[in-house]
Amino acid sequence: MPSSNLKPVTVYWRPQVPNPSKVIIILEELGVPYQGVFVEHGDLKTPKFEVVNPNGRVPAIHDPNTDVTLWESGAIVTYLIDQYDTEKSLTYDTLKEKYQLLQWQHFQSTGHGPYLGQAAWFLLFHHEPLESAKVRYIKETQRVIKVLDTWLEGKEFLVGDKCTYADLSFVTWNAAIGFFMNGRPKQEWDPENQFPNFSRWQNSMLARPSVRKATSLAKEEDVHS
């Protein structure tokens, strides 16, 4: 279906949060129209929003073109790719590449984002300073970034010879590292020197128009295609 015939996908979001931004990046890349619904932090656990997402988190989407409502960013990205990437611009349908993409997507959602989220929590938000927790999650952040850095040696992208949804699934979480590591010793986070392959790849992702738009959104009225 041409995008001009599509109704906008509703995206439930909050600004400057990695997972909602991940969904907006994919919508932008695919040219799928969308409209944001800002959810106040205090409304996330209310019965009204839990009808949309019983887990009380963003992002969630409702697609009026298919009457599909989904939550969990990984599931949403998979749906958008399956439903709207008819030209395979962000994916592959060859056997090896198809499952390598899933491998990296699952790593991001289970072995990357959660550790970075815990690092951010203990470094910025926890009510008491727990240095042991900070050190643990800084080390985990370094470890998972090292996985990416090692894999990207001699490669421009995670899979194949083009940017895919797997690459784009990492970019917003990666962008948050500098924020929550701000003020820590340089030996703990110096990506240009410690992880040069990762840094090159991340910078190339940050330069994409879809990423620039998604990471700059701050107001509800901005969130639309």
From TrEMBL:
Residue stretches making up the GST N-terminal domain: 7-88
Keywords: Transferase
Residue ranges of domain GST C-terminal in the record: 94-225
Segments traversing the membrane: none
SUPFAM superfamilies cross-referenced by the UniProt entry: GST C-terminal domain-like, Thioredoxin-like
Gene Ontology terms, MF aspect: transferase activity
Tagged with keyword Transferase: yes
Entry's family note: Belongs to the GST superfamily.
Name of the featured protein: Glutathione S-transferase
